[in-house]
Write the structure tokens for this entry.
Amino acid sequence: MLRLSKLTDYAVVVLTRLAQDGAMPGGRVQTAPGLALATGIAEPTVAKVLKILGQAGLVEGVRGARGGYRLTRPLTAMPLSEVILAFDGPIALTACVDGIAGMCEAEQVCPVRGRWDPVNEAIRNAISGITVADLATPLQTCVPVPALNPIVAE
Amino acid sequence: MLRLSKLTDYAVVVLTRLAQDGAMPGGRVQTAPGLALATGIAEPTVAKVLKILGQAGLVEGVRGARGGYRLTRPLTAMPLSEVILAFDGPIALTACVDGIAGMCEAEQVCPVRGRWDPVNEAIRNAISGITVADLATPLQTCVPVPALNPIVAE
DNA sequence: TTCAAAGCGGACTGGATTGGTCCTATTTAA
DNA sequence: TTAAATAGGACCAATCCAGTCCGCTTTGAA
């Protein structure tokens, strides 16, 4: 399976939650513990996700007491590719592609060297039009279940 | 990085080599040790790749002395997606997607459940038009380097 | 009839990757 | 001054995968 990191999945959940809570640019912030409660994801993991999202410029952290996180843009302006890039690195299918010339021991006889590029390009194009909002909106109608989950009970 | 198995890469190399050697349907066969020499990939690994390709119906194994492998179809009729399917499983980005309902501990509050489907669909569409021949042909002009590689020397 | 060459299937192991956690420092509102 | 929160880094356990190695079966040729 073409796996991407589990953290990427969490990231979409967290971003969606931030949008639902109105943690938009100029708006109020939402804390990591609060997001952990709301999403059911363990708190340290949420913190890690937010850390990475912050480094990628997708969320903005406000330090100090009453601090928290908010989105830097609406989800409709946030390409999914940026989230994937932050957690999984550049979208490239094989090590052969990103490797430096000379790293591949079969380089001299390998008839496929560099040939995955069109595939990567095709995938990049396919994803390029998708924003985080596209993954979030259809299920916003989902009923919120605040405290039914054992792992969020503390 | 969106990795797929290294074996998938090898598979394309091996398939390409089979085509170059004329190991086509009804044609002669090529042995695993021979392919190992020709590609510079270690023999046990080549054998493993061919095994999987055989189970996927992409190559046909001929057992016994003077046995070997040949393609079941020309590379132009071999979708890359079938190769990926054989080595990496179905093209689906997250565990959330293929997981059975109830496996996800955040299921009840997860607003993204099943939402990767359109992304997977987009990627499947992007790859659907690509055949193994598309990855092989442009570099068929590559000069063959028969015995320059230390790992093929025996 | 025997032998050797080759595919077939499965099991095993070492290494790399990753998910998840924790600790400490820094910032800042009350 | 204190407490709440982010920021950054280090660390550990578990998982996954590439690669190898067995034994078995098949089959053409001597």
User: Anything to note?
Assistant: The CA atoms of residues 75 and 131 of chain B lie 7 Å apart. Residues 5-7, 42, 44-45, 48, 62-67 of chain B lie near DNA strand D (CB under 10 Å from a C1'). Chain B touches chain A through 61 residues (CB under 8 Å). Chain B has a mean pLDDT of 81.
